[in-house]
Design goal:
Strand content: 5-15%
Strand order of the largest sheet: 2-1-3-6-5-4
Number of strands: 6
Distance between the termini: 88 Å
Largest sheet: 6 strands, mixed
Oligomer: single chain
Order of helices and strands: HHEHEHEHHEHEHEH
Shape: globular
Helix content: 40-55%
Radius of gyration: 28 Å
Number of helices: 9
Length: 252
Amino acid sequence: MAVMDEFKDERNEMKNASLNKKISYFWYYNKWYVIGGLIAFVIIAAFIHDMVTKKEAVMEAALLNSSVHLEDTEEYNEKFLSYMEIDSDKYSLSMDTSLKISFGIMDETAINSSEKLSAYVAASILDTIIAGDDIFSSYANAGIFKDLREALSEEEIEKYSDFFYYVDTEVVKQVQLAETEMDSSLRPEIPDPTKPELMDEPVAVGIYIDDCTEFLDVYTFPDSDCVVMGILTDAPHETMTVTFLNYIFENG
């Protein structure tokens, strides 16, 4: 019997078949099309959902080696947005606590975190980095932070001057040279960040936030005695970052 004749006979048989048999017949010949269609639908639906529900960040922060409880951070972030009268259904406070940096033992986590942070900085995504002073030092002396005299008002400079973390411009230049030349012998000794009087060209690039206890009760830094916050040179939300700085001090 020709193939077309077999097909016609089979089709005629299906016309009078039971519902279960029709379903089985359809599934046998079309299951991969159905499965493929369902997978495509799920992917497209998930993409649309992410696009529709994605919130715009009012500030992007990287918290290095921070330990948190998710429910506490959500409550804290909501509190800040409420204080700023910002709609939390549309906007978010982005606090990345996934970055684990170590300059001692560079395991896979540390390497991935370092690369991720470098990509953030290069893409001008971040507004602020908050870290223990030992980790902060490496980034501060790499010259990625803004001179706080350019970000803060005169009143804020006076208010926070006792908390400033300083780098020496000349030392930063030497560090950058050592990195460019890939010669560790050119790397200078890093001066005490709390003693600008001993520097040639001191610049305040960070603020010690150890007195901001409410913030540090939520976003803890268990491996650090002192925590510093710096504003990135190309921070896209600089004004909001300064507002956040004021907030954590006022609610300390």
